[in-house]
Amino acid sequence: xxxxxxxxxxxxxxxxxxxxxxxxxxxxxxxxxxxxxxxxxxxxxxxxxxxxxxxxxxxxxxxxxxxxxxxxxxxxxxxxxxxxxxxxxxxxxxxxxxxxxxxxxxxxxxxxxxxxxxxxxxxxxxxxxxxxxxxxxxxxxxxxxxxxxxxxxxxxxxxxxxxxxxxxxxxxxxxxxxxxxxxxxxxxxxxxxxxxxxxxxxxxxxxxxxxxxxxxxxxxxxxxxxxxxxxxxxxxxxxxxxxxxxxxxxxxxxxxxxxxxxxxxxxxxxxxxxxxxxxxxxxxxxxxxxxxxxxxxxxxxxxxxxxxxxxxxxxxxxxxxxxxxxxxxxxxxxxxxxxxxxxxxxxxxxxxxxxxxxxxxxxxxxxxxxxxxxxxxxxxxxxxxxxxxxxxxxxxxxxxxxxxxxxxxxxxxx
Length: 414
Prior knowledge:
With 414 residues, this protein is an alpha/beta fold. The protein is built from 13 helices and eight strands.
């Protein structure tokens, strides 16, 4: 008997006319999660809603196939970063953005069994690379419906704790930190999931200022909440400049479940490499002229910088040292690119980084898809500005998996 010809993920999308650009195309998260998890024990978390989605699709498109997954499975994953075939461990990806955490932990042999990201444009980029649509607002997801997993990952929203975010909220008379009802309390969604699912470990990421916010009280609350769940907690501020040519300090918080680890464990984050990096090495040779600043914008930025220099402030544009590292890429980069401007020689205005250069600056691989997904340059700048630096998380992931394997009370570790 001839072997069954595998359906590709792309052919299934085409056949079922799946598109993230359709606001009414609900059910895609359950459907794609089931396709990813149909061979493991967490498939029941997604099967029923995924089955209904498939039945509705077949009916609406007048397709002849039976409303079942039999004609779809197994799948050939023709996406840049397909699921691991023989995973060593499982993880969930919360506040996933475009998948920086996922890239790092998949590289260590991990299987993602649940992901959540509310931003629609980030969902598009994520789906294009992993073949999976994240669930939306995590506050609306019942923790009992999230599959069991070994490691919880989450770069929870940092605006309530960042220096820029705090300054802006203060100027508007708004609360910040845990008093910020829209973002500050999202940390507690991590807490409720940890409490319900009790994974062996977690890794969280946030801005450096989290440690000092509200005179250290915010960070103390976070650590106490995690320790109350019987996790042994470690943290470290790491500058991405040792991994990519960008000064980007972020705090990482790792935790290990006391059910699996002795309290005497001592997890150490990786020491950064010593090599010197240059932004010059990731620049395009012939960037599109549309990224060059207009005369009006360049004149404005120079006048703005001069004004604040006279006032004794440090605000202003930043011309990158091409033989060194850049300033931190932020989510506001799309507005004027002022924090990282690339000089183009005498008599020519500087330019912004291109989205492809931002991809490289954040350590994403060259085959990470950012074009022809329905996502604009503006949104791509936001996505990379909000992302983790992938090589940093990759280094931590390797240390964590090795640490779990060596120190777990269980014989198999992970």
